[in-house]
Amino acid sequence: MKSLSVMAMVMLSFSFAANAQKGKWVSLFDGKTIDQWHIYNKSGVDPKWQVEDGAIVLTAGGAGDLVTNKDYGDFELELEWKISEGGNSGIMFHVIEDAKYNAPYYTGPEMQVLDNERHPDAKQGKNGNRLATSLYDMIPPSDPSAYKPAMEWNKVKLVIKDGKATHYMNGKKVVEYPTSGPVWDKMVSESKFAKWEAFGKSSTGKIALQDHGNKVWFRNIRIREL
Asked: Which of 14, 65, 74, 128 has the largest CB neighbor count within 10 A?
């Protein structure tokens, strides 16, 4: 009985430690090193991803997408991004890292990063569903005016909790949707991802910063698990 009691106390202490970690903000970038990230399906970081003035910068295309070392399920992510003129990038979540997928976008839904004025993607898709902070190719932002143009910083927040996702841009809630179920399945079926069997199927995974070939900056990246 005594040994069972000790085991129960140990298990309880582990549970308290795990719960204490949840809800605590954790930095994913210290402004100096990119050691909490690696290139998708590779180890380490390509030198085209640099640190400049406290920001992670993709200096040239061909580096590959950055993904977190850790997987996340429910979370709140905050960061700032700045896109070059005519540029395109993205922030993906619940990315499955596996050699059978060539890039994060095969599995992870995307919060769009875009120069709305100059990049052609802004006028493609349906009803603005490829504008900055959209759920890419599925849901447009409810207030596109919340966006700041190329070479200005945009502060965004992505919340994934209890099967629902919410996108915020510069303090405004602009997109909301379920991450599974019939409504989600219908959205996917009407998008470019309709025949991608693993797209949006996982409830946990990496967070990705996309190399779309254009210069892009990310800073003040932090996350808390919910």
From this structure: 65
